[in-house]
Amino acid sequence: MNRFLNYENKFFKTMDWLVDCMLASLIWLLFSIPFVITFGAASTAFYYVMNKSVRHGRGYLWKEFLSSFKNNFKQATVVWLLIEAVGAVILFAYYVMSTLAKAGDLPEAAVYIYPALLILLLMAGLYYFPYIARFESSLKDTLRIAPRMALANFPTTLLVAGVFLAAMYAEYRLLPLLIIVPGLSLYLISILLERVFVKYMSSEDLAAEKRRNEDQN
Fold first, then answer.
1. How does pLDDT run across 101-117, given as a tens digit for each residue?
2. Distance CA 26, CA 177 (A)
3. How many domains does the chain have?
4. CA dihedral in degrees (121, 130, 143, 80; nearest 10)?
5. 86, 122 in Cβ contact below 8 A?
6. I want to staple 146 with a disulfide (CB 3.0 to 4.6 A). Which of 15, 20, 131, 217 is the partner?
7. Could you give the CA distance from residue 31 to residue 172 in angstroms, rounded to a whole number?
8. Exposure on the CB side of residue 138, measured as CA atoms within 13 A
9. pLDDT digits (tens, 9 = 90+) for 23-46
10. Contact in structure between 40 and 76 (CB atoms under 8 Å)
């Protein structure tokens, strides 16, 4: 009985982890309103707390989320607006080209490039906000480096995209899952992406981060 009530046992640790995932999901949803503007900054802060607070137990979730949201708001919002703009252009071009192809004015194969471009945009988007959360970089470097990471680590990118799309499908099928699935899926995505990010960190930065995580634990 005493062993069960010990807050250091696996049951309570798992429950704490689930609660943190749920709280992070709810905060992300709250800060993503309005979606058109704040989604990028909210997603950056979401990744930041999932990696720092939920995975490694450093800092307070709410406080760390607010700090990252504020510090990265400008860059993350610009990136998100650019993604929206590029996505809108691709969708409009796809609509126009599809119409022309159906009318027989264009070969149907010419239309296939636009879904491919959307997939590439999704792949880059999956890296942009975690990258902003993890590295101090100029807007120009962020726009340049994150897509290169996605392509250079293509197998991992496919896994990340698979987790993301599976989470989206689950939430679409059962809307209440929005309170927990975003946190659970991002937890898994953060594990995958951190294996990529460590390749781009100096040995000094890696050692310092390892010390911070060990001190917390």
1. 887 777 777 788 999 99
2. 11
3. 1
4. 60
5. no
6. 131
7. 20
8. 3
9. 999 999 999 998 899 999 999 999
10. yes
Indicate if the pLDDT at residue 6 is higher than 60: no
Classify residue 124 by burial, with Cβ atoms within 10 Å: 0-12, 13-18, 19+. Answer: buried
CA atoms within 13 A of residue 149's CA, in its CB half-sphere: 27
The yes-or-no verdict on residue 209 having pLDDT over 80 is: no
CA nearest neighbour of 158 among 196, 205, 123: 123
- CA 205 – CA 9 distance, rounded (Å): 32
What is the distance between the terminal CA atoms of the chain, rounded to a whole angstrom? Answer: 26
Token pair for residue 120? 């590439």
Residues whose CB falls within 8 Å of the CB of residue 165, separated by 6 or more in sequence, listed in order: none
Residue where the block lists tokens 């982890």: 17
Domain containing residue 17: 2-216
Of 17, 15, 65, nearest to 187 (Cα)? 17
Residue 109 has φ and ψ, to the nearest 5°, of -60, -25
Whether the CA torsion 101, 104, 105, 109 is positive or negative: it is: positive
